[in-house]
Specification:
Number of helices: 3
Number of strands: 7
Strand content: 15-25%
Largest sheet: 5 strands, parallel
Strand order of the largest sheet: 1-4-7-5-6
Length: 131
C-alpha cells in the first residue's frame, strides 16, 4: 500500500481494512487520491478517520456523508474539508497548494446518482437495440 497512488475503497466494513500508518499523504511518485464508496454508516469506516482528518483534503457527494465513520473527525468547519463535489466543481476545484496532502472523495450514494445512472444505461440499451 505504501507505493499506491490511488486507493478505491468499496467495502462495508466496521473498521479500516489495513493500518493507515503505512500510508503517507504523498506517494513517492506524487500525489495520492482515495475514493471511499463502501461505508455509509456512522459505525463503518474504510479509511482511518484520523488519517482523513490529518492528511487528506476531503470532498463529499452530499453533506450527509460527514456522518459516516471515515469522516467522524471532520465537520464543515474543518480546514481540510473542501465541501461537496458540486461545490468544488463550481468553484474551480481544489487549490494547487495542497501542502503535501492527499485528496479523499467520500460518496455514500444518493438516489439522484442512481436515477441518472439507470437513465444512461437505458439510453445505451435502446441505442444498442436499434443496431
Amino acid at each position: 500500500v505504501e507505493n499506491a497512488n490511488i486507493f478505491v475503497m468499496a467495502t462495508n466494513t466496521p473498521k479500516p481494512l489495513f493500518d493507515w500508518n503505512w500510508v503517507d499523504a504523498k506517494s513517492k511518485s506524487g500525489m495520492r487520491h482515495i475514493n471511499g464508496v463502501g461505508s455509509y454508516l456512522p459505525s463503518s469506516s474504510e479509511v482511518d478517520s484520523k488519517f482523513v482528518r490529518d492528511k487528506c483534503l476531503t470532498i463529499v457527494d452530499t453533506m450527509e456523508s460527514l456522518h459516516v465513520g471515515d469522516l467522524k473527525d471532520l465537520d464543515e468547519s474543518s480546514d481540510n474539508f473542501v465541501g461537496t463535489l458540486g461545490d468544488a466543481l463550481t468553484n474551480g476545484g481544489i487549490s494547487s497548494n495542497m501542502n503535501g496532502m492527499c485528496t479523499f472523495f467520500k460518496s455514500t450514494g444518493t438516489a439522484i446518482q442512481d436515477i441518472i445512472t439507470a437513465d444512461e444505461v437505458i439510453k445505451l440499451a435502446k441505442k444498442t437495440e436499434r443496431r
